[in-house]
Amino acid sequence: MAKKTDRLPISQSRKFILSNDTQFAIKEAYKTARTNLVFSLAENEKRIVVITSCSPSEGKSTNCLNMAITMAETGASVLLIDCDMRKPVVHSLLRLDNKTGLSSVLGGIVRDVSKVIDRNVRPHLDILTSGPIPPNPAELISGSKMDQLLELVGDHYDYVFIDTPPANVVTDAFLLNTRTAGVILVIKEGHTTHDEIRECLDKAKMTNCRILGFIKANCLGKSTKGGYKYKYKYKNNYYKYSEYK
Predict the structure, then answer these.
(1) Within a domain: residue 7?
(2) Cβ atoms 196, 169 nearer than 8 A
(3) CA angle 85-89-93, nearest 5°?
(4) What is the average per-residue pLDDT within 208-227?
(5) According to DSSP H, which parts of 57-216 are helical?
């Protein structure tokens, strides 16, 4: 069984957000993932994508943000929604205020979602933070206000990315399956086990949720000295369900 590691501190996680200093190979890996996603959504009217992981500390929030950044670099209008209303981190990664956000809209505290969206955090990229942690996140996600919100932002933005809690911990990611195009699952090399992936895929199958693909994070890369060293890199891999059965 793979050894589990603790979540990286926010200060370290910020280093893995795409920037001008990001290695070329990492940027190209995200562009490959972007191309695959665009083709996957070509015949789908819904361009709202959920990004989750099997378990905590697998890099889902960082990958969700980087996919949103990569898509926005094409000039498409993109919104990232932090729907992890249990342990939200997107606002911390981007140093955004989180006094109001998604929970404020779904809870009826804020009626106009445009008032709580952070505009142009990156070129063409807007962010809707989670807002204060509510006592009933699953109920808020499955409620009618979430339907109305996704319909509104789906009409306004070219692409919407939704960061949700780990799928093997709570059901939030799969509660959105009828309102979104599907789910991208982040798996972490040396961390995520095959049993965890099978469990997650079984849950997706039970809820008729479409798995759009996998993002494999923390891949091992060759060092210049001929050995191997640990690199924080990303690789997009599309698997068939049969590979995990």
Answers:
(1) no
(2) no
(3) 150
(4) 71
(5) 60-72, 90-94, 102-106, 137-141, 144-156, 172-175, 194-206
| DSSP conformational letter for 45 | S
Instruction: Tell me the residue ranges of DSSP E strands in the chain.
Output: 48-53, 78-82, 118-122, 125-128, 159-163, 182-188, 211-217, 220-222, 228-230, 234-237
* CATH number for position 137: 3.40.50.300
pLDDT band at 241; cut points 50, 70, 90 = very low
Which residue type sits at 210? R
Whether 19 maps to a domain, the answer reads no
Cα dihedral 44, 50, 218, 231 sign:
positive
Q: Are 214 and 181 in contact (CB under 8 A)?
A: no
The token pair that represents 112 in the structure block: 């106009």
Measured CA to CA, the distance from residue 168 to residue 115 in angstroms comes to 33
Using a 10 angstrom Cβ sphere, with 0-12 exposed, 13-18 middle and 19 or more buried, the burial of residue 243 is: exposed
Residue 227 covered by a domain:
yes
Query: Domain limits at 191?
Result: 29-244
Within a domain: residue 48? yes
Residue type, 18: L
Give the count of domains, the chain: 1
Residue pair 197/187 in contact by the 8 Å Cβ criterion: yes
Tens digits of per-residue pLDDT, 28-69? 999 999 999 999 998 888 899 999 999 998 989 999 999 999
